[in-house]
Amino acid sequence: MVINIKTNNNLKSTIAIAALQGVIDPEIGLNVADLGLIYEIDFDEPEKKIRTTMTLTTQFCPMGESIVGNVTQAMQEIFPEDAIEVNLIFDPPWTYEMISEEGQKFLNG
Predict the structure, then answer these.
(1) How many CB atoms lie within 10 A of CB 52?
(2) How far is it, in rounded angstroms, from Cα 76 to Cα 20?
(3) Partner of 99 for a Cys bridge, out of 17, 26, 87, 103, CB 3.0 to 4.6 A?
(4) Distance (Å) of CA 54 to CA 34, 46, 91, 108, 109
(5) What's the CATH number for 6-103?
(6) What is d(CA 10, CA 17) in angstroms, rounded to the nearest whole number?
(7) Contact 59, 89 (CB under 8 A)
(8) How far is CA 45 from CA 49, 95, 99, in A?
(9) 25-55 pLDDT, tens per residue?
(10) Region 87-102: what's the mean pLDDT?
(11) Beta partners for 52?
């Protein structure tokens, strides 16, 4: 399974995903992109905004605030001219099936 993130700009999304692969879920040790926590990255060119929709492995994740902050920071670093907005949702809920093939190899290795 590849990283499956809905986007309206494939080129910029590829850049964003590369940056998000540097954001690690500290409890699991895997990055948020391969973990399947990023659902959508929407690039609003006229408004110079980037909206990232994501989830956490559980609503009660003790590191949730830190992870969201790190996602915001990673996006801001590569798109400094844009306003970054991270929307945290829990529907659909995260499942192990959302982990990328690379992520599964990492976890099982």
Answers:
(1) 24
(2) 11
(3) 103
(4) 12, 23, 10, 24, 26
(5) 3.30.300.130
(6) 10
(7) no
(8) 7, 32, 29
(9) 999 999 999 999 999 999 999 999 999 999 9
(10) 95
(11) 41, 86
For 72, the token pair is: 């915001």
- Cα–Cα distance measured from residue 13 to residue 9, given in angstroms and rounded to the nearest whole number: 6
Cα 96 to the chain's mean position, in Å? 15
Of 24, 22, 20, nearest to 12 by C-alpha is: 20
Structure tokens at 73: 């920071």
Cα(38)–Cα(67) distance, integer angstroms:
11
Q: Which residue has the higher pLDDT, 70 or 27?
A: 70
CA neighbours closer than 13 Å in the CB half-sphere of residue 33: 20
